[in-house]
Amino acid sequence: MSATPSPAAADDDLSLVRRVRAGDQDAARLLFDRYFDRIYNYVHARLGRVADAEDVAIETMTRTLTRLDTFEDQGVGFTAWMYRIAHNATIDHYRRQSKMTMVPLEEANLPQGDDPSELAVEKLRDEDLREAIRTLTEDQQQVLILRFFQDLTAAQVAQVVGKSVGAVQALQHRALGALQRSLQLRSAS
């Protein structure tokens, strides 16, 4: 299932947001059920530990549902707003732990499953790709996770990471180029 909602799903999200704001607990459950696994997978890829990922995903969903009054659809949408909350909750988690070192993507114990996005993440277990990813910056890793494993648009990623769309595209381009060069060097050896 794609993390980028279709226009109909985005409209449905906005409808659910309005219902939650009006006190509809069923709508809150629907939003939670729709997004929890996606947020968990994103956070898990950043943290690498199941218990921490569960805590941060729950914290993200709680923050999201209790702060819906602050959400304004400004063209990027609800999904990107929620990933930004997840990103901030992940950073807050590290601050609480008094350390800011994230688990490198290639060392993360990533979830497995039949979902296409999870299958794509599972491919990261390939040793050559792990070695190539090790050369990327944290920003490049985060952009790749959001773009290719969470299937967000460049505009949504820009909102999540707090950079311009151009900066996200540049990070993505440099990351993919670095991965390609590294993989070519490994295959030549």
How much of the polypeptide forms β-strand, as a percent range? Answer: under 5%
Number of domains: 1
Major sheet, described briefly?
none
End-to-end Cα distance? 37 Å
- What level of helicity do the residues show? 55-70%
Class from secondary-structure proportions? mainly alpha
CATH architecture annotation name: Orthogonal Bundle
Write the layout of secondary structure elements.
Layout: H1 7-21, H2 25-47, H3 50-66, H4 78-96, H5 116-122, H6 127-133, H7 138-149, H8 154-161, H9 165-188
Could you characterize the architecture of this molecule?
The structure is a single chain. The chain is mostly helical and about 190 residues long. It has a single domain (about 5-189), classed as RNA polymerase sigma factor, region 2, helix turn helix motif (Rna Polymerase Sigma Factor, Chain: A, Orthogonal Bundle), CATH 1.10.1740. Helices cover about 70% and strands about 0% of the residues. The protein contains 9 helices and no strands. The chain has helices spanning about 5-20, 25-45, 50-65, 80-95, 115-120, 125-135, 140-150, 155-160, 165-189. The longest helix has 24 residues, at about 165-189. It is elongated and about 60 Å long. It starts with 6 loop residues before the first helix and ends with a helix.
List keywords for this structure.
Rna Polymerase Sigma Factor, Chain: A; mainly alpha; elongated; 189 residues; 70% helix
Overview in brief:
The chain has 189 residues and is mostly helical. 70% of the residues lie in helices and 0% in strands. It has a single domain (7-188), classed as RNA polymerase sigma factor, region 2, helix turn helix motif (Rna Polymerase Sigma Factor, Chain: A).
